[in-house]
Fold this protein.
Amino acid sequence: MTDKRRSMTPAKILALSGSSRRDSLNSRLLRAAAAMLEEAGAEVTLADLAEYEMPLYNGDLENRDGPPENQACLKALFRDHAGLLIAAPEYNSSITPLLKNTIDWVSRPTPGDDGPSPYRGKIAALLAASPTSARRTASGACATPWSTPSAAGRTSREPPPPPGAPASRHDRASAAAG
């Protein structure tokens, strides 16, 4: 019996880092993950977003000058790959401006563009690394744990609940029990 992995077409993965910092942990994480994917048989393209400079997205600028040249290059890369591997640090509780701007420009239609959306049908994997996660202690506790007031006025070391969720562990357990 033949190995199915060997008879399949290798997955084409576009790997992007949401950070342009020279020694970015996320770029290092991305390269390590890309190497593992290649070992597993995938075809990985590492795209350095710093090499695809584009102005901040602005509809007036787009109407006046059209899309930047690098937009077409990145859009073609997105379309030519079946999946996306994105490593990005958290930035003000969101993604980095570099990654957001890339997503915005790549999503814009271009003159004569009759192809599918560059995001349609894509499978994406998101990775993140931060210096804080690297400072975990041997016991698994974070070196700088959350410190939030609990319902009883004590300090809790558990992460804050998502918006709209019961405030304390006791309230969450009661809500789950029905």
